Amino acid sequence: MPSAEAAWFDPAVQPSSYGQAGRAPLDGPLRLVIVLMFVNLGLSVVLTGLMLAFHQSVVDYEIAHMNLGANADPSVLATVRKSLDSALWGRLGGVVVVSLVYVWRAFALRRGSRSAYLRLQWLCGAGLVGIVYLIVAANYPVWMRVEQVLQGVVLIALLVAVNRAPVRARFARRPAVPVSGNTFL
Fold first, then answer.
1. Which of 19, 20, 28, 108 could cross-link 113 (Cys pair, CB 3.0–4.6 Å)?
2. Side-chain half-sphere of 48: how many Cα atoms within 13 Å?
């Protein structure tokens, strides 16, 4: 019986012959990718919990660090507070959605799904762009910025891990198997 690693690259070997049906063996490079995915997810969940616990404090901090002036109109302040409040809740909702997608994509990566691999590359790039935007443009407290920098470092590590040669080879496009035309000769 071929080794699990050789079986992964041999299309003649059925998945059930080398382990759990539908799952490729979890090698070191893919394990690193999945671990980094869940470290990133963990950081997001911790930040979400802190944002829920300190929701009003975060909004107050953002308002205090805006150029509204000391004599700002109360209706303007109310509108700004409502906008910041909505943005914070939107971010919390985004974390929940990304969390579900990460778990779903981790299982798909274990199955060997090329589309999951490609989506993960896209998610890493989009996540980095989002983190850079939040670090540069948002007026969050220092503790949130520290978490965002940590999350950015994890996303960079994840992007590097996803693009390593063994992982790329694992999810490389497989050549199509030619179909013989006439079997009645």
1. 108
2. 17
